[in-house]
Amino acid sequence: VDDAQEEVRELLEGERDKLDSLAEALLTEETLDEADAYRAAGIERIPAPV
Length: 50
Fold this sequence. Notes:
Strand content: under 5%
Number of strands: 0
Shape: extended
Radius of gyration: 14 Å
Low-confidence stretches: none
Structural class: mainly alpha
Mean pLDDT: 94
C-alpha cells in the first residue's frame, strides 16, 4: 500500500500543471465535456480504436 501511495503521489506531482489547468477551467466553467477537459489540461486526446 505504501508503494502504491508513493507511486500515485509522484504521478500527481508530475502532472500538477495539467491538474491545475483543469481545476482553473472547472472553476470558470463549472462543467466541461470530455473534449473541453482534455483541451483545458493540454492533453491531445487519442481516439479509441474502432
